[in-house]
Amino acid sequence: MADRYELCLSGFGGQGLILAGIILAEAIGIHEGKYVSQTQSYGPEARGGKSKAEVVVSDTPIDYPKPTDIDLLLAMSQDACDTYYIDLKAEGILVVDSTYVSEVPSNQAIQVPCTKIATDLGLKMVANIVSLGAISEVSDCVSYASLKKAILTRAPKGTEKLNLAALSEGAKAAKKAMS
Amino acid sequence: MANKDKKSVLIQGNQAIVEGAIAAGCNFYAGYPITPATEIAEMMANRLPRIGGTFIQMEDEIASMGATVGAALSGAKALTATSGPGFSLKQEIIGYACITEVPCVIVNVMRGGPSTGLPTCPSQGDVMQARWGTHGDHPIIVLAVSSVEDSFDITVTAFNMSEKFRTPVILLSDEVVAHTREKFEIPDPEDVQVYNRVKPTVPPEWYIPYENTARGVPPMASFGDGYRYHVTGLVHDIHGFPTERREEVKAFTERIHRKISHFYKEIQIVKKYMTEDADVNIIAYGSVARSAIHAAKEARKQGFKVGVLQLVTLFPFPRKDVEEVLRSSKRVIVPEMNMGQIAREVKRVNKNYTRVVKLNRYDGSLINPDEILRLIREAL
User: Fold this and answer.
1) Does B344 touch chain A (CB under 8 A)?
2) What is the 3-state composition of chain B as percent helix, strand, coil, each rounded to the nearest 5?
């Protein structure tokens, strides 16, 4: 399936990964007009425990809604990185939140301190948006502009500026990490 | 049509059920939250009051089912939604709805079981419970959804069937369908075909509430319409009063079954994907049907003739369509997220026409297309 692009956003419950998945799916599906399917798996706990959101992108209607071969893995915890790295394609992209992931399984991993950046911006909660900024920089699957639109429709009133700053910082940090 | 300027939205299966229900005229919801069906209650709580409907969170699932039946008797189009443990609790009153012929829709978003089981994982373990969960010989309609689009369309169908045949309809979803978000264009209300129950037109004193009509479905008066009649869970005569007279009991039991069995053609819905020339056909439903279609398309690319018969109606079991596929295939694969509940029905219909192979997963994950492809390669 050449026209399938699959992303997995993983970490622990409470990091906002499912919301990040929804924003990503809206950016690609609604603002870029492609077919998307967003799924998730999570434990029964409200916080903590493994959590992941998956987004499948395609130019044609999607039958099987879950990923089969991951093109891009975001790992926001060491546990998630250890668990899901094996699902990443050989030529796939690995982005880790280096705030939590110290042992990277590959020298190709793109290390972005998402949570640290978010904390520096004043709200740890926006680490998920920082990670989306990073994704827009390292992959062609979504444009920065559509992510911006998707975030603005989702962000609660009054938080738009902070969220857009998070997005921008994430993209910048990823660019730096790749150079 | 002005469809072009319509906006797509990214919604999950549970939300599509809510949109479908409202499009079908649903104006009452009673429920008790439970993963992975909670979003249905949440969204109904938001939507119904805005359109003059009623949302009630009851103290438990038993009471929710009671409220659903009560509301439907007063003329509402009523919905309740739950998952495994709650579905077990609702069974007694689902039987009451069957015998009193009250139209209503019960959504069961399947998760791993038995008991509390796997609250956040998908399963198809409640298929037989949907058919036989309440006691006694009873007719019931069970439908299964596989996508956001289905969740909208089939919810409308479920309401229409419940109204047309005066029966509870069970709508089976699963955790994957419920929580998968996809793009969807919500149809305009005028584009949705809605069926409403037939009401009596005779003067109240002539009304025979359980009359043995030709279609088997007597007109239904709402409480408050001025028609006085008796509603009971005991087997009743045409006037609604308890009876043990053999001929009346027999006529009653036969009628409530006949009203469904005479309309199999209309009730039994299937979707066929490339089944006609297929050497191997996959019979699937719910989220697994999507894995099956994906596998069939991949197999076709590799030169294997594979098709999919997707069952939308699980019960009354679509015997004719299944039989047709069994007769024409070299092998039939039945993948399910349980130990083999629909496979058993397929095998019952199979009269040595072909070999039926089960593919079962009961570890809380969706069957993936590769697993099905492996079986296809083995078969050919």
Assistant:
1) no
2) 40, 20, 40
Give the pLDDT band (50/70/90) at residue A49.
confident
Q: Which two tokens stand for residue B275?
A: 């089944």
Region B272-379: CATH code: 3.40.50.920
> In chain A, what residues touch B119 (CB-CB under 8 Å)?
44
pLDDT for the residue numbered B3? 40
Report residue B274 as tokens.
């490339």
Specify the pLDDT at position B342: 98
Q: Is B364 on the interface with A (CB under 8 A)?
A: no
Residue of A63, A146, A147, A149 best to disrupt the B interface, most CBs of B under 10 A? A63
Q: What HEC string does chain A produce?
A: CCCEEEEEEEEECCCCHHHHHHHHHHHHHHHCCCEEEEEEEECCCCCCCEEEEEEEEECCCCCCCCCCCEEEEEECCHHHHHHHHHHEEEEEEEEEECCCCCCCCCCCCEEECHHHHHHHHCCHHHHHHHHHHHHHHHCCCCCHHHHHHHHHHHCCCCCHHHHHHHHHHHHHHHHHHHC
| Alpha carbons B44 and B19: distance in angstroms, whole number | 9
Find where tokens 């009873």 sit.
Answer: B138
**Distance between CA B183 and CA A28 in Å, rounded?**
10
Task: pLDDT band for B326, please (50, 70, 90 cuts).
Answer: very high
Q: According to the model, what pLDDT value does residue A47 have? A: 67
Contacts of B297 in chain A (CB under 8 A): 63
Q: What is the pLDDT of residues A3-25, one digit of tens each?
A: 899 999 999 989 999 999 999 99
Domains in chain B: boundaries = 2-191, 272-379
* B297/A29 Cβ within 8 A: no
Domain hosting A34: range is 4-178
Question: pLDDT tens digits, residue range A96-146?
Answer: 999 999 999 999 999 999 999 999 999 999 999 999 999 999 999 999 999
Decide: helix, strand or coil at residue B360: strand
Higher-pLDDT residue of A43, B129: B129
CATH classification of the domain holding A122: 3.40.920.10
Domains in chain A, number: 1
- Quote the CA–CA distance of B280 and B248 in Å, as a whole number: 48
Tell me the three state secondary structure of residue B204.
helix
Q: B360: distance to nearest CA of chain A, Å?
A: 17
Looking at the partner chain, which of A37, A40, A44 has a beta carbon nearest the beta carbon of B182?
A37
Q: What is the dihedral of CA B108, B318, B169, B364, to 10 degrees?
A: 0
Q: Using CB atoms, which residue from A36, A43, A64 is nearest to B369?
A: A64
Q: What is the DSSP letter of B331?
A: E
**Residue A14 touches partner B, C-beta closer than 8 Å:** no
Domains B2-191 and B272-379 share a fold: yes
- Looking at the complex, does the CB of residue A42 fall below 8 Å from at least one CB of chain B? yes
How much is the pLDDT for B1? 36
Domain B2-191 indexed as CATH 3.40.50.970: yes
| Complex ipTM | 0.93
Predicted model pTM: 0.95
